[in-house]
Design a protein that fits this description.
alpha+beta; minor pseudopilin epsh fold; six-stranded antiparallel sheet; four-stranded antiparallel sheet; 10 strands; 30% strand
């Protein structure tokens, strides 16, 4: 007659349900964290896009330079139009990069740091002014270019811009 070992019964249904529930909760946390990061990128992109439009429109309609500024301060990227109060765009843990265009070539991505970047517009045409002789900003990337991100493409001849991925 065979002797059965009562300690070797396998996995109970309750244990299996608990493991599946724990895995489900972990997956939910990961997905929520990923979508939260994308929402922050989208909100920052919308703020930067609307601030660029505001700077260009104010400059053209009021014939006074309302520069667009994007810089770091206290762990945030800040956006400022003219002399208005700056707004928090996004935490610096979500990076913002820019590219410049000069002599028919576009540079690689450079992260916005410290005093940041300033984009100025022409009072008469709305075209972007040069950063230095023959150099213009061409793109802004909110997020990591090798991960989740949005890109604002700047058209320096007209000062217009559009959002893409």
């Amino acid at each position: 007659m065979k002797k059965t070992n009562k300690d070797n019964r396998g996995v109970t249904l309750i244990e299996l349900i608990m493991v599946v529930a724990i895995i489900g909760v972990l997956i939910g946390i990961i997905v929520a964290g990923f979508s939260l990061g994308r929402n922050k990128i989208g909100a920052a992109t919308n703020l930067i896009d609307s601030s660029l439009s505001q700077a260009r429109n104010y400059t053209m309609t009021r014939s006074i330079n309302y520069d667009f500024k994007l810089y770091e301060q206290d762990g945030y990227y800040m956006v400022q139009v003219g002399g208005q109060d700056p707004e928090k765009a996004v935490e610096t843990k979500i990076p913002i990069y820019y590219k410049t265009y000069s002599g028919g070539h576009e540079s690689g991505w450079t992260q916005v740091a410290g005093s940041g970047i300033t984009i100025a517009f022409s009072e008469s045409s709305g075209a972007m002014k040069q950063v230095t002789v023959g150099t213009y900003y061409s793109k802004l990337c909110i997020g990591n270019p090798s991960g989740a991100y949005k890109v604002i493409t700047l058209i320096f001849e007209t000062g217009k811009h559009y959002v893409g991925e």
